[in-house]
Amino acid sequence: MDSQRVESAVRELLLAIGEDPDRDELVSTPRRVAEAYSEFFSGVGVDASHLLSETFPLEPDVGAHAPQPVLVRGISFRSVCEHHLLPFLGTAHIAYVPSNRLIGLGRLPAIVDIIASRPQLQERLGEQIAQTIADGLDARGVLVVLEASHGCVTMRGARQTASSTVTIAARGSLAEPAARAEILMLIGAIPLPSTTSSTR
To answer: Whole-angstrom Cα distance, residue 112 to residue 52?
Structure first.
């Protein structure tokens, strides 16, 4: 990323909205925005599939049963909507059915982070995550469920502050209705650990 160009563009934007970029409160804003953008868009030009280069063999089942799905729920992510350059925040749930290789569970959030760190659409984000896992692991099936709250919906226009968007991307065996329904049930059936506590 060209930080100097970002800083110049932010300064020009402040001038365009009628602000004074040289006032004390704004003088460091172009630099701060450039630093933030270096995080928000760190996935531009990065191939997330390299995270799948290290895998582990799936031991053959003596009972000759088909491999069962691996499900990781509650992966937090943030991205930036490419239509308005406003953030969207959400949770990803990822399931895959391995063929003969497994991936370290920590690699799944890392894949989400790389692909989300670009100007994005939620619908495309889910599809790209699913395709990366399907291709990189030669997985029998992949299911990616994303739920996110979009700044372009909550903070402007209709200002639907309580709304969220859910998208589903499926590949292979997990695109079949029965298998997909089972994973969706598992995503919702087991309560996620609470991050807040209440006192009386």
So the answer is: 12
